[in-house]
């Protein structure tokens, strides 16, 4: 049973809950075997779960991850999978850069509010006196 894992072993190894693993099973991303009433996972299942967790950490949807895994199974040379991954990664980069720009603007505006409120209360603040907020 060196190449088989229980749900608890897999959850512990990946620092996730057994409920998380069951959720991915319900979504059709994992299909464990059974030894009696015990779910057992193969090295392939462990690799798939690692890919799923990485995809979630990078902000990909369950559907994106499912498409990626299906391509992996269907394309032994992984050309389609790699092309799809590249396209999804580029789209995610653009999305995150837009979010970062928006966060920078929000922080700038909040700092301006903070300065104004602190001045109104007579608090002394180290300031970025000339800083203006731009949406560019």
Q: Largest beta sheet: what is the strand line-up?
A: 1-3-2
| Counted beta strands | 3
User: Would you tell me which CATH topology of the largest domain applies?
Assistant: Multidrug-efflux Transporter Regulator, Chain: A, Domain 2
What share of the residues lie within helices? Answer: 55-70%
Task: Summarize the SSE layout with pairings.
Layout: E1 5-6, H1 7-14, H2 18-26, E2 33-35, E3 38-41, H3 43-57, H4 62-74, H5 79-120
Antiparallel strand pairs: 1-3, 2-3
Features:
Transcriptional regulator, MerR family; DNA-binding; DNA binding; mainly alpha; coiled coil; 136 residues; 3-stranded antiparallel sheet; single chain; Multidrug-efflux Transporter Regulator, Chain: A, Domain 2
Explain this structure.
The chain is 64% helix and 7% strand. It is mainly alpha-helical and 136 residues long. The chain has 2 domains: 1-60, Multidrug-efflux Transporter Regulator, Chain: A, Domain 2, CATH 1.10.1660.10; 75-121. A 3-stranded antiparallel β-sheet has the order 1-3-2. A hairpin with a 2-residue loop joins β2 and β3 (38-41). α3 packs across α4. The protein is elongated, with a radius of gyration of 23 Å. The N and C termini lie far apart (58 Å). InterPro entries: DNA-bd_dom_put_sf, MerR-type_HTH_dom, MerR_fam. Residues 79-106 form a coiled coil. Keywords: Coiled coil, DNA-binding. Residues 4-71 form the HTH merR-type domain.
Summarize the structure.
By secondary structure, this protein is mainly alpha-helical. 64% of the residues lie in helices and 7% in strands. It has a three-stranded antiparallel beta sheet.
